[in-house]
Amino acid sequence: MAFEEVCPDRIDLIHRNYRKLCNLLVDVEEWGQVVIINMLTRYARTQFTSPWKEDGIFDENEKAFYDSDSEEKQGQREAKPYIMDPDHRLLLRNTKPLLQSRNTAVVMAVAQLYWHLAPKHEVSIVTKSLVRLLRSHREVQYVVLQNIATMSIQRKGMFEPYMKSFYVRSTDATHIKTLKLEILTNLANEANISTILREFQTYVKSQDKAFAAATIQAIGRCATNISEVTDTCLNGLVLLLSNRDETVVAESVVVIKKLLQTQPTQHCDIIKHMAKLFDNITVPMARASILWLMGEYCERVPKIAPDVLRKMAKTFTAEEDIVKLQTVNLAAKLYLTNSKQTKLLTQYILNLGKYDQNYDIRDRTRFIRQLIVPSEKSGALNKYARRILLASKPAPVLESAFKDRDRFQLGTLSHSLNIKTTGYQELSDWPAVAPDPSVRNVEVIEPVQEWAPSLGKAKKPKSDKFYSDDEEKEEEGSGSGSEDSSSSSSSSSGSSEGMFVF
């Protein structure tokens, strides 16, 4: 710990102690294990080459399976196959038993070590241990689920067999539910999407409104990632628009808006349906989303969009700022596409916005007026108004919130907060060429060896004489038993007398 605090960059101090630390790791107390594992993780990233190379699976003696692929295989065989450094393997082998530790911090430390250092086919070893930690306290669950969420983005296959472990329980806290939802969404594929969507249908009915809203976002992500269920998800979200809960309806509108951007031509009916529900929706973000859809696809709903603008002109001053901004945008787009019906409405809304209390709305109104209404001051910009406001816009990509967290080392505070915290030590990239491994060799100095031969020589004659005497006695015993007995009796009496005399 002192090393980590005082001089964490002095990797050269670890060289000679590396093997000793690896071998003693099992016997160290738990919190010492955590510190050593984190230290050795950073060390290994500077001393060994990457085990993730694609040519690591090839062997020099491997032969081409097909003759047509011989040239390609030959090129792969010419490259040197990856051979793991024995010290690298020593670290992985000695940390593996610690996955059975009772201390959750130790298990998490070993899991991050395997994630950052082990070959890809060996990382799945840690899966079962991480799932086991989900039975612990909610604080532990939170940290472990955050790390699993990051892992599951890159390697879905690791946690797919344990998918049921991430089903939400009614007793879970909201932040635990949200993380489990994130992981289930990451694990979704064509094979298991029907099971996951059935699970999501239950979650939408939850009394926890924040969790229900997060579930609707997860359904939207599944719809964009898996094209086979896009229509099914979209129809399910439309049904949620008739839900009694405003939060669910609002979130559904926002997600539907994003999904419609991917294929707007096919779903004019949905846009019309949302326009009918507009009066009953009170959540500002949802109202703003419907107004944006009306403006963006106003040419596909030419009769409905002007009527929506008429309603908004009546309530403009009472609306939230985000709704006012989208109303101004809707007015501008309708002015360009249907000026006969909406010219006066647009001028009225621009006049209301000109004197609004919010300076963003005043600025936007002033900008829109100069852009769409031709005048001497507007200049050449007026010619490009249609291209600016009605340009085709790329559909938003619904991504995981944990997508960029892999830049931090797993299990660290920085990873948990998604911010680089004070004292965070970044993992270095794998070196292209491994440094000299001999720096970890330790010369064993044994000063006792100088005296050992002399002691051996001093003792050797005695032992030889002792055993030779026995052999002589046995030989004599076979020839003359009486002499043996007398000599033995005399020797024994002599020895016994010697003992008493002594």
UniProtKB/TrEMBL annotation:
GO CC terms in record: endomembrane system; membrane coat
Annotated segments matching region Disordered: 453-502
Residue spans of biased composition, Low complexity class: 481-502
Domain Clathrin/coatomer adaptor adaptin-like N-terminal residue range list: 1-373
Broad class of the protein's primary localization: membrane
Alphabetically ordered keywords of this record: Membrane, Protein transport, Transport
GO biological process, one term: intracellular protein transport
InterPro entries: AP_beta, ARM-like, ARM-type_fold, Clathrin/coatomer_adapt-like_N
Keyword Magnesium: no
Subcellular location: Endomembrane system
Pfam families in UniProt: Adaptin_N
Bilayer disposition of the protein: Peripheral membrane protein
Top-level lineage group: Eukaryota
Family membership: Belongs to the adaptor complexes large subunit family.
PANTHER family in UniProt: ADAPTOR COMPLEX SUBUNIT BETA FAMILY MEMBER
Protein name: Adaptor related protein complex 3 subunit beta 1
Species of the source: Xiphophorus couchianus
